[in-house]
């Protein structure tokens, strides 16, 4: 089980700020994103802009292998617009 934290637009689209998910221990960042989108299809709109932080380190979507441990935090960080 990992804790998924949603920020800004991702929280709006998911309808919550955090949840606990059961995901495979070893998977790519893209596979993790797909698992999250299965639960919250509206997040698919952020696909080309979203960045993860896994254990507070940035991870881009792609083939990067993640090895998750119980209790790890995964933050979903959409683009932040400044002004």
TrEMBL record:
Where, per the database record, does this protein carry Glycyl adenylate? 83
Q: Where in the cell is it found?
A: Cytoplasm, Cytosol
Residues with PTM 1-thioglycine: 83
CDD domains, A to Z: Ubl_MoaD
Name the domain of life this protein comes from.
Answer: Eukaryota
The UniProt entry, under NCBIfam families, shows: moaD
SUBUNIT field: Heterotetramer; composed of 2 small (MOCS2A) and 2 large (MOCS2B) subunits.
General remark: This protein is produced by a bicistronic gene which also produces the large subunit (MOCS2B).
Q: What does this protein do?
A: Acts as a sulfur carrier required for molybdopterin biosynthesis. Component of the molybdopterin synthase complex that catalyzes the conversion of precursor Z into molybdopterin by mediating the incorporation of 2 sulfur atoms into precursor Z to generate a dithiolene group. In the complex, serves as sulfur donor by being thiocarboxylated (-COSH) at its C-terminus by MOCS3. After interaction with MOCS2B, the sulfur is then transferred to precursor Z to form molybdopterin.
Protein name in the entry: Molybdopterin synthase sulfur carrier subunit
Source organism per entry reads Nothoprocta perdicaria
Give the gene name. MOCS2
